[in-house]
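#onboarding

Welcome to the new folks! Below is a worked example of what a typical request in this channel looks like: someone posts a single protein sequence, and someone else replies with the predicted structure as tokens. Don't worry about understanding the tokens yet, we'll cover that in week two.

Example request:
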Amino acid sequence: MNAGMQAARHTHGDASALLSKATARAAELLQLNNDSLARVIGVSEPTIASVRAGRGIDPATQEGQLALLLVRVFRSLDPLVGGDEAKRIAWMHSHNKALQGVPAKLVENPEGLEATLAYLDGMRGPRFEWED
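Example response:
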């Protein structure tokens, strides 16, 4: 294997390991258990146990794309609640009128995950002050 192929393989491995750690951490901070996280990214519960133990998640796979969206949900929500753990957990696990459901349950399917992220991104979006 030449040096370029080794570098590409190493970078891919680093991205997979990083995504695995970020996904596990986001799930922990959003209080999503293994069963829930398995539904979010579309894998089995034993696979989630492996992910939490260090198995990488390839960002190029469907599992990886869903994991990236979950990390983005955390990254969008956390600033909105000022980093407050209790508020973050309450938001994730309470009914949201605009989303018409509980975000922690909605993120368990791709459409709900995307809708939750779009809602949060909209809440974080630029606020314009109109002058008269």
